[in-house]
Amino acid sequence: MNEVITAKDKEYEAMEQSSAPGPDQAMSDRVNNRSLRPRSEAFKEFMTTGWDDNEPVIEPLESSHYIQARLDTLGKAFPGERIVIPAGQPKVRNNDCDYAFRPDTTFSYYTGLGEDYEAGAVLVLNPVDPDSPEAAAGKTHVPELFVAPRANHYTQDFFMNAHYGEYWVGPRAGLQEMTAMTGIETNDIAQLSDALSKDVGSEAGAVRVRVIREADPQITEMVEDIREANGFADPDGNTNADDKLHEFAAEARMCKDEYEIREMRKAVAATKHGFDNILRKLPSSLDKPRSERMLEGAFNAISREEGNEVGYDTIIASGAHAPILHWMRNTGTVESGDLLLIDAGVEVNSLYTADITRTFPTNGKFTDFQKKLYQAVLDSQQAGFEAAKPGATYSDIHHACMRVIAERLHDWGILPVDVEESLSPEGQQHRRWLACGVAHHLGLDVHDCAQARYESYQGAAIRPGMIFTIEPGLYFREDDLLIPPEYRGIGIRVEDDVLMTEDGPEWISAGIPKQIDEVEEWMASMAAEGAKA
């Protein structure tokens, strides 16, 4: 039998070790010590030849038809200023392994880029010359994207760069592709610093710069350096100016355009399919260790098949886990006879996400006691829906939902005071069993528009185009000694997604059953499908 390691192999090994890094090797480079990569000139030359030059035709994204209107609105809010919106960088999971990249929400909104486009990219809105033809046509800014060029087979980065090289990560969108997809002129990220510095100054007529600070610390640092070098070394003032940009961008997303509404409907439809898959798997998962995670996997598989990812960590909360508002460990056993609370949403490729919660009897049938509690939550949700109408304030939803909850708790002998005392700001005793909110804006973020002002959110009138959740619940913790034993360890939430139209609110998740009889029928139908699989 021949030797596996030959004398020649040892000779090659000695040659490799002779050029190995020494004891002063930088920590950042040591991740490469795990493998021996070819570095010969012969290899490098060989790798840049013999590849097919055919490239796919890049079509404009559907979102690109809506981007210019968004950019125009943003530009008019900050005339004469340069606006910088980074996509952000990948977040490290461990060592040199990153989480799947998701661009910053503001970047995605103003570029129309979803999925994993494009780590390290930056959108810049450059103010136009007041005497230019663009200004005469009503333009305030010209958008420009900056991205890393493609590391395709014409470059050594193709096989040498594990972050961008297409040998490693597959085809990427470079300058030409980004321009084609978005309709925004795209340039090399290496030009960014010079582009941001152009005409910046403190004198009259000079350009000032604002940045979405939280998106990419490296870009924020670059902007701060440019500010300091040009007479704007005012950390508090700069932060306040940047916050106003972030605030405006959040409030701009409150009313969705027709494209966004279509994407939200897609997200809801995919989420329904995810719930279907859970219910197919539920009977075979009962009483098995970590069966919460089995059901989580059933939903998450659909999110990857029909969308980009889950819009947030899926909550599968069975039995005593259900009153835990954000139970995301999903390590429990789903036991027959318990109630099972599932809060989940599919994020589609455009990054718009649904947010749906349903509560199921694990054995397929509600008990009379479970029905009583579940119906109270349904009635609360319906009251919130009826309160939501154009011109009503957003907080009207909250008050309508809470009144029903307080009344039922009083009827059951649980509330220690009368209903009005509890509902008053000085009372709020009913909130022991519903401490969270009952509605929030929804869109690119599951808790969308989070940087909006209070008066633009809770105190604002509901307008057509807004999409939000209505999600009251009852959460009776297992360790709550102020309620009868039969209530303990039960959590119920019903959450739906609502579009405000000119004619009033629309349940865009109406196709996902929630009435008691409909839920039981749905469970039976999906269980039958699962048994056939």
UniProtKB/TrEMBL annotation:
Segments of this protein annotated with the region Disordered: 1-30
Q: Which GO cellular component term is one of those annotated? A: cytosol
Q: Name one GO molecular function term.
A: manganese ion binding
Q: Which Pfam families match?
A: AMP_N, Peptidase_M24
Family matches, as InterPro entries: Aminopep_P_N (IPR007865), Creatin/AminoP/Spt16_N (IPR029149), Creatinase/aminopeptidase-like (IPR036005), Pept_M24 (IPR000994), X-Pro_dipept-like (IPR052433)
Q: What SUPFAM superfamilies does the database record attribute to this sequence?
A: Creatinase/aminopeptidase (SSF55920), Creatinase/prolidase N-terminal domain (SSF53092)
The Aminopeptidase P N-terminal domain covers 61-216
The protein's UniProt keywords, in alphabetical order, are:
Aminopeptidase, Hydrolase, Manganese, Metal-binding, Protease
**Which cofactors?**
Mn(2+)
Q: Does the keyword Transcription regulation apply?
A: no
**Which reaction(s) does its UniProt entry say it catalyses?**
Release of any N-terminal amino acid, including proline, that is linked to proline, even from a dipeptide or tripeptide
Q: Do the record's keywords include Hydrolase?
A: yes
Family named by the database record:
Belongs to the peptidase M24B family.
The name this protein carries in UniProt is: Xaa-Pro aminopeptidase
